[in-house]
Amino acid sequence: MNKKLLAVALTAACAGVAHAETNVTLYGLIDVGVGYERIKGDGFHATRFSEVQNTQNGSRFGLKGTEDLGDGLSAVFVLENGFGPTDGRLQQGSRLFGRQATLGLDSKSWGRIEFGRQTNMATKVFTPVDPFATNFNSANMGTTFGALNTMRLDNLVLYQTPNLGGFKLGVGYSFNADDTRTDNSGRFNTSDNNRSITTGLSYANGPVYLAASYDRMNPTDAAVGGQNEAKLSQWALGGYYDFEVLKIHAAVSQTRDGWFIGQALATSPGGDYSDLGSYKLADGFKATSTMLGFTVPVGSSTAVFGSWQRAKPDNDKLTGDDKTFNVYGLGATYAFSKRTNVYAYASYGDNYAFHDGVTDTAVAIGLRHTF
């Protein structure tokens, strides 16, 4: 009996040590609601009232883990699935772990390096800049700042520094930005792949937050406008200042030689470029985007936020009638607890997706729960 008790005690002790060195967490989020949207333009008028999903955040479940390797070094991984709760379908092109699939090393001294699929640096550093946190569909600033619209890259090697006096820098290179694209899937040569560079710099100090990013896509020679004719790029600058009773947000960017596809171009009538994946090339095209926004906390459970954003093209090489594109958005959240909240938002876009006279009006309310 004593030997059995000793064995149980030793097993428990070893399990405690293993638990201290290795940690795996299951987590998730579910977001559903109801919404109304109307898209109107020359010769067409479409409306929809329906159940909606993934409005404030994309629904997901995932596993993330760390293993302590000693001397401040850890092995880290994230496997994150995206799904639609209204029908249970996979999101992100029906990938099993479409939101993120990475493995890497993390050091308290020299930073983190990861390999796999995850968001670009512009999305990471500008999510705090956007009052809508790069969510809420067309109201988020990614609508007119294309590369900020939660753009994910396959085959990405990403290095991020530790916090250095408030500064954090990230630099990444994707060997093939989207493995699902039909124009480069299964190709061998380097030039047959859509290669991408992503960089981002942020600075946080008290009420001040600043961000800068640069993204560049070197398309496959088989792509429309390829053969090195167009190398799509975008730089962005922005930040916020928190007065506690009011937070002011602002940003500016410029996109050249095409557009990083966000919800606007991918879903607008006459502008369905979903078959082109995550970008549309247009050699010589240039557009300047601006955003002004605010966030007002109301008590400890409620926040009201809004923004105005604009993308102004310099020519008509993207859609053929490229007009200045404005989006106005207003939203609010109320937290029942740390894990459950309700939300509502409304947005209006004119000359939507650069199309002359096209308008998009959207309204939704929903419920979000994290676990």
Structure, described:
- The protein is mainly beta.
- The longest helix is centred in the first third of the chain and has 20 residues, at 2-21.
- It has helices spanning 2-21, 121-126, 263-267, and strands at residues 22-41, 44-53, 60-70, 73-82, 100-107, 111-119, 152-160, 167-174, 195-205, 208-218, 232-242, 247-260, 279-298, 302-313, 325-335, 340-350, 359-370.
- It is globular and about 65 Å long.
- The chain contains three helices and 17 strands.
- Strands 1-3-4-5-6-7-8-9-10-11-12-13-14-15-16-17 form a 16-stranded antiparallel barrel.
Concise account of the structure shown:
This protein is mainly β.
Task: Give me the secondary-structure topology.
Blueprint: H1 2-21, E1 22-41, E2 44-53, E3 60-70, E4 73-82, E5 100-107, E6 111-119, H2 121-126, E7 152-160, E8 167-174, E9 195-205, E10 208-218, E11 232-242, E12 247-260, H3 263-267, E13 279-298, E14 302-313, E15 325-335, E16 340-350, E17 359-370
Antiparallel strand pairs: 1-2, 1-3, 1-17, 3-4, 4-5, 5-6, 6-7, 7-8, 8-9, 9-10, 10-11, 11-12, 12-13, 13-14, 14-15, 15-16, 16-17
Radius of gyration: 22 Å
Instruction: Report the sheet-strand fraction.
Output: over 45%
Shape: globular
The SSE string, one letter per element, is HEEEEEEHEEEEEEHEEEEE
What are the low-pLDDT stretches, counting only 5+ consecutive residues below 50?
1-20, 263-277
List keywords for this structure.
single chain; 371 residues; mainly beta; 16-stranded antiparallel β-barrel; 3 helices; 17 strands; 8% helix; globular; disordered N terminus
